[in-house]
Structures are given as structure tokens and as C-alpha cells.
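Loading example: each entry is read as two labelled lines plus one structure line.
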Amino acid sequence: MRNTWTICRKELRSYFVSPVAYLLLAMFSLIFGFFFWNALGYFVIEGIEMQMRGQAIPMNINEQIIRPLLSNASVLGLFFIPMITMRLFAEEKRTGTIELLTTSPVRDLEIVLGKWSAALILYACLLLFTALNFSFLFLYGNPDWKPLAVGYLGLLLQAGGLLAIGTFISTLTKNQIIAGAATFGVCLLLWVLEWVSGYESATWATVLAYLSVITHFDSFGRGVIEIKDTVFYFTLIFLGLFFTSRSMESLRWRS
Amino acid sequence: MIRVQNLTKRYARATAVDQISFAVEKGQIVGFLGPNGAGKTTTMRMLTCFLPPSAGTATIAGFDVLEQPFEVKKRIGYLPESPPIYPEMETVEYLRFVGRLKGLSGAMLEERINYVCDRCFVADVKTKLLGKLSKGYRQRVGLAQAIIHNPDVLILDEPTAGLDPKQINETRDLIKSLAGDHTIILSTHILPEVEQTCEQVVIINKGKLVATDSVRNLQERARGAETILIEVAPRASAPDASLTLQIQQRLERIPGVSRVVCREPSGPDMVFEAESQHGQLIRGDLARAVVESGWDLNELRPASMSLEEIFLQLTGSETHSEPDKTPAPQRIPASEPNA
């Protein structure tokens, strides 16, 4: 546990002393800020139109702004996760520092957990900037905070799973670009798998759609913690980390 | 302290290390010598539990590298070929990170950091980024990293590679000063390094153990016969083949000289190589013979002969036509037939 924390701290440091973390934070908050601005713009126009028509359908900030924005954030995450995980092991393998880690009295799992948790903390920092946008809603409106909290939990779980996959892919190569590109491909695939459910209802299509990380986010977006979706994400995290530590072990046999 | 028995590493297509056995006692410095690609790094990686051996065993301080890697890792300090540093870290920060990985903490950790910084002469770059350090400093930080937890065994893979001559000397002195507290294995393909730093030498070639002996024994054996280089210039005539032959014959008549060879002439001087018989001193006689015959003696010096020749004979197939049947651990022959 202590070693995990040592490695996690070291990883966080290398994110934050290099421009990587700041670039990701800037891009993420810029793009999410744009989404927020748009969502708010539509919301205001809609409100004015309704007033002009004299309709009195209650408007809901949670349903009309927060929920779509949360799923936007989850999609945005798919693009940022490869950039977070690609260096984790690939860089150490290229520079040879992996020899330091594997010849120290530290267990493989501790190394893997340390690196993965550092990536998750960086992702949580990205989400913190989206919270800045939402705080304006609380300042000028009165949205319900509970669905928002559940939504964030969902985002973290989803990212945890994808980050674990990215960490695993990073152990497979010395080349950061290959690690990044492969992770991006897998993330994108896990996202679009859900599309098949639109035109096909056979069992295979249901299974494919079930594997998609997006379908499991819906419930969190609505503010509901579904056991099956939570289990799905935890399985993803567990499998990702399990394969990572297996792959680390095999580094020795393969190299 | 270190026991290696029939250690073997096979890859899909090649055998990198083939049945190597040797032992190192506590406090010794052992030079691991071999040409590039001989299997030095692979052996070291097996000793540090980075690679698992395909066959054979290696124990460090009584712990097997396969059975109890955790205990082994606690007791070794390892400096890989390129120092395993993170360029974005400061020296102290890096040492703190490594120290924590090795199980140090609190006041003990800070104390060790200060100690290794002084010991390895990196105290003046404590707050510098490792990426900005020169190669020599990186190497020293790498050494500091290896000794931070005061390990019983130090494994250093080419610790002086890529350093300038001054840094090489400093690093060698540093390594020598570390012996005693630590048992040290260092690999190198530079012979003088072994002569200067190590007490014991293990020579491997193409994955096979060629010889293991103490450096002193090797040197004594090498010194038995002496090779002298003589540069002679004729006073009056230009050098030609008959004169060369004449000088060669004159030198060969000196008692104690076993063989005289004429080297490629370069310029007006003729260069001869005279080998003495075992234990004979011939320098004075050579000089007198040249001068008394009326030639100019321009240079006379012992040819650098030592481990180098033995090494070449043992490792190079082109100099020695011995078939490739090198039996496992073998003592170095007392005197080479042509020496």
C-alpha cells in the first residue's frame, strides 16, 4: 500500500511538472466550457420561447442541462483517456527505468495500482474543472445536487475502466504513440458498439451493445445507481488491472 | 555471498548465457569481463531478478532468485547499463523516491540521502533536474540510487561506459571505496578497468564461462615473459630488407631473447618486437646490442602486454584456433605457448 502511494505520487508529479497535465486540463475545460455555453444558450432560448407562447411546461435544469452535459463529458473522456495512459509503462520501458521498478522490492500489483490511481486522479482533476461550470447553475438556479453527484460517480467509474484498459495497452509496447493510438481505438470501439442496438435486436447485437461503455452510463446520467452498471464498470477495472499485472509479469519472460 | 550454478538463459533462437558457474565472497569486487554481446547484461539481469533463468540457480545472500525474489531484491543495488533516472525529477527527489521503493522512510531516509549524496559526489546537484545533468553526474546519481538502502550486493552494469577519462577514474575510485561494505559485481569490456578495480575476474564469451581467477594471478602469469618494442634507425644508409634482416639476426643472438619479429615499417625507423624467455630481463642487452652495432636506438619500451593478450586468446577465435569446446570453469593456463 505504501509502495502504491509512492508510485502514485511519482506519476502525479511527472504529469504535473511536464506540460501534459496542464495541456489536458486546458483542452478539456475549454471544450467542456463550450458544451456548457451551448447547452445554457439553448436552455435560455427555449425558456424565452415558452414564455412567448404562454406555455407553462416546467423547465428542469437537471434534465435539460446537466444530464446531456454529463454524457458529453463521458464522450469527451474517451478522447482524453489515451493521452493520460499512453506514457504510463511505454515510457518506462523505453528509458529503461522499468528495470529500477522491477528490481526493487515492490510487487507488480503495487506498481500497477500506483500508476492507475495516478491516472484516475488526473482524470478527476479534469472533472473538477467541469464542476466549475456546474457551480454557476447552483449560483443562479436550484438544480438537484444528487443526480449530479451520481453522474460524477459514473464518470469516474467509466474512466476507471477505460484507464485500466489504457494502462494495460501501455505495457505492451515501448512506443507511446502506438500505446495511445491503440487505446484510442479500443475506447472508440467500446463507445460505438452500442450503435448496433439501433437496427438489430438479435442476441449478438444485445451482447455487443451491452459491452459498450456508453450504455452503462445512461443510468448514472439519470442520477440512478444501477447495480448491473456499477458491476459492469468494476469488472472492467478489475479485468484491466488484472491483465496489466499479468502483462508486467510476462515482460520478464518475453524480453 | 553470490553463488551461481550452471546459470543458463535461452531465448527462442539463441542461448545468451550457457551454464555459467562462479562464486563471490563477501566484500569482494568481481569484474565481469567479456566482449560486447557476451551475455554480461543478461547474467546481471538474472541476478537482479529482472529476468528468470531458463536453467540453473543463482543465490544471493542465501536467497534464490527464482524462489525468493523479494528477499533478493531487498539485498541488491542495481545500476543498469543506462542509469534508470527520470529526467523530470530533481536529484534529491529521485533518491527519495528510490529510497521509499527500497523500504526506507522518515529520518532514516533523509540521512541515507545525505550520505549517498556525499559519498557519490552529487551533493552539489541536489536540486537540479536529472535531465539537465551531464552523463558523469547521471552515472553517479545512478550509483547513489544503487547504494541508498545499503545493500549487501551491488550489481553494476558497465558503470564507466560513456564517461570521460577523469570521470572514469573518479567512478573507479568510488567503486573501490565501496568494496568491503558491499560485495560488488561490475561488468565491463575495458580490461584496465578490471586490473585497476577488481580483485577477482570472471571472463565470459558468447555466453560461456571462459575463465575465472584473481587479477593478481593473471597479471603475474602475464608478466612471466616480456615483450619489448625497439625502434631502430640506421645511421648512414636508408633502411632496406637486408639491413632489417641483419638487425633482426643481431637481436636474436642476444641470450634470453626467444623471438624477434619485424613490424610494418612506418617512416625511416624500423620497429622490432623482441620477446624474452620466461623470467629473463633483456632490455639492457637489447639497447647495448643496437648501439654497439652502430645503429641509432630511437625507442625502447615494454609492449603493453597483460590481461589484454590473455583475454584475446581466451575470447577471440581468430587468434587462437582452439576448437569451440571450451570446458566450463577453467583456470587460465600458466604460460601461453607463444608468449
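Chain A has one domain: 2-254.
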